[in-house]
Amino acid sequence: MLIERFRKTASNLVDPAEFARFVASGVTATGGNLAVVWVLRQVIEYHFALVGGAATGLAISFTMSKLFAFRSAEQFGLNGEFGRFLMVWGFGTAVYMIVAMIMGTVVLPIWLPEREAEMGGALLGAGSMAVTSYIGHRFFTYKSGRKPG
User: Into how many domains does the chain fold?
Assistant: First the structure.
């Protein structure tokens, strides 16, 4: 019984077409995020640049996730998808910031110059956020992983 339940859950964890659209959306949002981090880092401190990049990524990510990746028809509203999106995004952003700061300021500077280490940290943070976000959006925000019945 437990094994069968695990099989059903595992097979429902990822929808390949949806995941491909999510990855495309994520790559676009990550590109916007990293571009803003790069530009802002020229004039402000790294941790502030990360916040600017995250805000840019949020705007791109919500728009593309709703309309393209998960193809949701639910009306926009703080009590609905957008509110749930913000919760998942907040958790994912915490993961992003922790990974980016540790990797970009502690681990990668062992091998790389400061700016390259920071950008590597931001990229690794974004990758970590992608994994947590897909699962959160699939099962909580858009509920596309929950089959009726």
Answer: 1
DSSP letter at 1 equals -
Q: Report the candidate in 136, 35, 38, 44 with the shortest Cα–Cα distance to residue 93.
A: 136
Whose tokens are 């949806």? That residue is 18
N- to C-terminal Cα separation, the chain: 18
Q: What digits encode the pLDDT tens for the residues 60-103?
A: 989 999 999 999 888 776 678 888 999 998 999 899 999 999 99
Domain containing 64 equals 17-141
pLDDT at 1 over 70: no
Find out whether 137 and 23 touch, Cβ atoms under 8 Å.
no
Amino acid found at 69? A
Residues near 118 by beta carbon (within 8 Å), at least 6 away in sequence = 41, 46, 104, 105, 108
State the Cα angle at 69 between 8 and 82, rounded to 5°: 95
45-54, 96-105, 140-149: least confidently modelled range: 140-149
